[in-house]
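At this stage, I wrote out one protein's amino acid sequence and its backbone structure tokens, and that material follows here:
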Amino acid sequence: MIRGAACFRKLFQSSAVSSKVAARCYTAQAAVQPAIYSSDEESADIDWDNLGFNLMQTDYMYMTKCSDDGVFRKGQLNRYGNINLSPSAGVLNYGQGLFEGTKAYRRDDGRVFLFRPEQNAIRMQIGAERMCMPSPTTDQFVDAVKQTALANKRWIPPSGKGSLYIRPLLIGTGPILGLAPAPEYTFLVYACPVGNYFKQGTAPLNLYVEEDVHRASRGGAGGVKSITNYAPVLKAMKNAKANGYSDVLYLDAVNKKYIEEVSSCNIFLVKGNVLSTPIAKGTILEGITRKSIMDIAHDLGYTVEERLIEAEELISADEVFCTGTAVGVAPVGSITYKGQRIEYKISSDLSCKQFYSRLVGIQRGVIKDERDWIVEIE
């Protein structure tokens, strides 16, 4: 059973139910001439075997705006390029912005699929409410992601070689001087082919527990994908990487003893047949890969817990791993806490490898998609 679900997750799930059918039946309708779409024969000239997680300019991006009425207009695809912003734009002055991350995958037969894009749409809507911003509807969001993937189809890696990372942005572009919501907003989607997120590829991560710098605090915006959550962790990340660590694991800001999340991903512990992850109480992001792995683990017979996890429990865990759209499912080889390096056994029969194998199997169509997670781009 799954225990300790937070109210944030309940809101997430209830919104998903109401929009699921509409999102899945929505067909992308290009707002520009179909001639812009790249054919399968025009595959980009890329070394697919050596893709990292680096910015690579693709062909097209999607853009639409809304003003005081809060309704986003019909968007269109434009050539990838810079956008014009007023120096007094809300996003530049007050950080009024959100972003999402999802991926398009190519299967062996050449067909292209998205993975649970409606969940990204719902998460953006929840974040927009927190940040006093209008947001696109689920249909608008999913359609924009589809259009962007189709327009950049030649950049989607072959099956098993990577994916097309799609980055939707919602930003306050209207000019504002006093502290207030911006008068205009832009919804923009761009894409980039990617491989492994971490430079060490699929090698186990080495994490450092940060005790002095905190990623988020109660009552803040740590539970939504606000752009303001990420710059504050850069210093801790830089220091950790300079000392040979892959990334930083943060503690709660009140008690300073409960683990929360890594800079760019969620974290899980395995002990016996129990899978535990920090409870989402407004200070961590409820990742879509996180939600999916919890469901997969439950299907495989694991007891799944969302709860407060003390850092001391890292010492006795059988296994630790991270999840995220960008990182996928990454095993942790060691965690350094209070000067003590905790080593974890890495083997082919790790629970996280079972979970990841099932996740990838569903994405590639090898395993039946019983939860309707996969959306084909038509």
